[in-house]
Each structure stands twice: as C-alpha cells, then as structure tokens.
Amino acid sequence: MNAPNPAAITQDLLTVPRRLPDAARRNIVGLTRGQLYQALLDAGTPERQARMRVGQIWQWVYHWGVRDFAQMTNLAKDYRALLAESFEISVPEIVTRQVSADGTRKYLLRIAGGHEVETVYIPEESRGTLCISSQVGCTLTCSFCHTGTQKLVRNLTAAEIVGQVMVARDDLGEWPKPGAPKDETRLVSNVVLMGMGEPLYNFDNVRDAMKVVMDGEGISLSRRRITLSTSGIVPEIAKTAEEIGCLLAVSFHATTDEVRDRLVPVNKKWNIETLLNALREYPRLSNSERITFEYVMLDGVNDSDEDARRLVRLIRGIPAKVNLIPFNEWPGSPYRRSSWERIEAFADIVHKAGYASPIRTPRGEDIMAACGQLKSATERGRKSAAQIAAEARA
Questions:
Q1: Would you say 95 and 117 are in contact if contact means Cβ atoms under 8 Å apart?
Q2: Which residue range is the domain that position 51 belongs to?
Q3: What is the pLDDT of residues 40-70, one digit of tens each?
C-alpha cells in the first residue's frame, strides 16, 4: 500500500561534527571527571589540589545545580575568580516550553550555532521519564518517523546532552536546597535516549554524557534507569555494553528484511539476522536484565498475527520484552495506526509466548511530543499539531 522509500544515506561509523563557535571560556558541563581534572590543571590548579577541586566543583554543578562559581562557598575567593575567568557552566536555552493535557512537557532548546533540539518529560505515577536527543536532526530516514524527515545537522556535544537533563531539573525545581530536609523523590527518575538522532552515531559524546549522569555524587541515575534506543548500529552495540552498560532498546518494527528495509533503511547495512546475533550477546556483556524490542504498530504493514508469531521466533533465546507502540500520526505521514483490536491481538500472541508485551500509552500527542513526532525546525517546533494539520489541508 506504500511505495518503498529510497535507501537512507547512513553515516560512517565515526562522524566529524560541524565546527562549533569558539568560546572564550570552556564549558564545565559534560566533562567527565578525568577531563575536568585535566582542564583544571591546564587552568593553573596545583596538581596536589586538583582531585579535591574536581569533587567540590562536581557536587556544586551536578548535585546542587549551581551555575555561578561565586556561589561555590567552600572554594577560596581567588580560586573562584580563576574558575570564572577560565570556565563557564552553560546549558541549552529554552526557546519554548509546551505542556500537554496529560502533563507531558516538551522543550524546544537552542544550542550552540543557533540549532534547536527537542526534549520531552513524561510524568507517570511511579516515575518521571526524560526523553533526550543525541543529534540535531537524524540521518536514518525511518519512513514512519517525523524526526527522520529532518536532515542531520550535527552531533550534540556531551555538554548539550547532559544539559538537557539539567534544564529539565531546572524547570521541575528538582535541585535540592542546601539546609533543607533531604527529599528522595526523583521527578526525573529515568532517562531514555529516544529523542532526535541515532545515539550510536554519536557514541563518544553519548558515553561521556552518561558517565556524568550516572555518577553517584551528582545527578546519580543508575545505569538501570537509563535506556539507549538504537535502530541497529551493530558495530557499536558491544561497545555500548562495555563502555556505558545501560539498558538497551532496539527500534525493530518488522519481522522480515523486506519490510524492515522500508521502515528502518539502516537494515540494508545490518540486516535482522546480523542485528539479532549482536543482541544475543548484549545482556551478558552489560549484565543488563533484558533488551526492549520497540515495535510501532502500522495498519496493514507489520501488524498481522503471522508477524507476531514470526517476531516470537526471531527473538527466541534473548532475554527480552516487546514494547508495542501505537503509531503516532503526523501531517503527511504515509501510515495509519493499527486498530486497538489488532494491537491487542498482536500483544496477546507475544504474551502467550512468554514475553511481556506492554502497549505504550501515547503521551503528548496534542503538542507533537509523542514517540516519532519530534522535529526541531523552528517554525514547526512552535506550532501545535492542530495548526500544522490545518496548514497541510489548506
């Protein structure tokens, strides 16, 4: 019913980001402990003091959320002046903030070079999940994904990835207050790398950012609270297990190479069999519990009973759950959402085969914040779904 899309132009494994504007001062946000240590030495911190200074600055920035060196009161005034001269504490700027009827928040954020990305916060009864981006745009052109209609501009830096978490905590008022009673409530309790871009095409920056987010003396999210979603960049999957160790989700979406080539064109480079072979090793390498297979439900494309049975056969032997995602339509999209009856029938087959098969509740659709709807083009980013639809009909 849908003509196949042309093959995606996929990046080489190592990408070179566009040159960012030169900054007079170096941004501390996103530096790993080792990088911060070296930066402090380079700025004139005595070697015998540097490790202690790293710990002090780290706590101010990532535990207390402080952005001004002058507020770091356990540092000498002359040292605070040295820091202010050499460094800055900078996070992305909020351009727009939209709140859905269901409480979902979508932030349009401006980063270096005037580029914009989107970040989404999804509050739930027992947790709050922050969906963050790893690239400006995307290169994979998955045919069901609105973000994939925007060309790749550049990779995000580690600072811009960590900065999304910090901006959300700012907006939610989540930083602790010195002297206040300790509050264990975590509004941002989970992070998912499921926003704009393919995280594994920006591996080094994603890895460094997650080291900062997972550090126990700062933001302190455990690796089991972080999920990285990939379309299947096979050469980087083992590295993800070894160097990040977070939970893994895979944008699977099809049970034959013919259909997956159309939906997720990177499949032409690493097909289903190659991808599954890599995934079989991941839980062992990372000590993760199980892999999440993300499966968007497209009417008449990948939602038959035979697809469900074939999916079960394909993932046999992999500790896994299947997250079924009702397709989130966007203006001009070439697909329709499967009926609720069809989605439930598919879920039932997977569940009876012994796999958890939750159906994701669409969130933030009214502000174009649902899965697959993100797109950062400024004009589109500032319009509601109703406005965009009205323009498309005009």
A1: no
A2: 26-88
A3: 999 999 999 999 999 999 999 999 999 999 9
Binding-site residue positions for [4Fe-4S] cluster: 138, 142, 145
Q: Do 159 and 116 reside in the same domain of the chain?
A: yes
Pick from 75, 159, 60, 56: which is nearest to 117 by CA? 159
Residue 14 domain-assigned (yes or no)? no
Annotated binding site for S-adenosyl-L-methionine: 197-198, 229, 251-253, 328
Enclosing H/E stretch for 296: strand 291-297
pTM of the model: 0.85
Q: Are 201 and 233 in contact (CB under 8 A)?
A: yes
Determine which one of 118, 174, 329, 365 is catalytic: 118
Q: What is the CATH number of the domain that holds 149?
A: 3.20.20.70
Is pLDDT above 50 for 229? yes
Active site residue 131: no
Q: What tokens were used for 112? A: 């270096």
Last residue of a domain, one of 42, 67, 88: 88
